[in-house]
């Protein structure tokens, strides 16, 4: 996918992905914009949860710190989402293509809900 605005001399974003079947335009756009969520996670994890406060020297220590920060972030997100009115949102149309992913996310969220 290439983001090329009308009237622009050059494209400013290029995306390359290997998918098992040809995706719809809506799915391509959703996937190309999903990077922002990852960037938001890292920014919030650094600012709010201390992801960038590791001062050790071993891989095992860094891995432990990273896992603890991710678990803390998941806990905060689950608490935030449960406070919302529509916690279990409707996935929408075209779910059959993403059914395995949706099922795995639902399974993991139910495990997190049991732990709280």
Question: Could you list some keywords that capture this structure?
Answer:
single chain, 116 residues, 3 domains, two-stranded antiparallel ribbon
Structural description of this entry:
The protein is mainly alpha-helical and 116 residues long. It folds into 3 domains: 33 residues, no CATH class; 46 residues; 31 residues. It is built from 4 helices and 2 strands; from the N terminus they run ββαααα. Strands 1-2 form a two-stranded antiparallel ribbon. α2 packs across α3. The longest helix is centred in the middle third of the chain and has 25 residues. The N and C termini lie far apart (41 Å). 2% of the residues are buried. The mean pLDDT is 76.
Radius of gyration (CA) equals 18 Å
General form: extended
- Distance between the terminal alpha carbons, to the nearest Å? 41 Å
Percent strand: under 5%
H and E order: EEHHHH
Order of strands across the main sheet: 1-2
Overall residue-averaged pLDDT value: 76
Low-confidence stretches: none
Number of strands: 2
* Assembly type: single chain
Helix content: 55-70%
């Amino acid at each position: 996918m290439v983001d090329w605005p009308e009237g622009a001399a050059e494209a400013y974003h290029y995306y390359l992905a290997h998918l098992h079947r040809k995706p719809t335009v809506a799915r391509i756009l959703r996937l190309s914009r999903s990077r922002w969520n990852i960037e938001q996670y890292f920014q919030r994890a650094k600012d709010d949860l201390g992801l960038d406060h590791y001062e050790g020297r071993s891989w095992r220590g860094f891995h432990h710190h990273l896992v603890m920060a991710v678990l803390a972030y998941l806990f905060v997100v689950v608490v935030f989402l449960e406070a919302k009115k529509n916690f279990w949102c409707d996935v929408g149309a075209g779910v059959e293509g993403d059914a395995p992913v949706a099922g795995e996310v639902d399974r993991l969220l139910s495990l997190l809900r049991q732990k709280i």
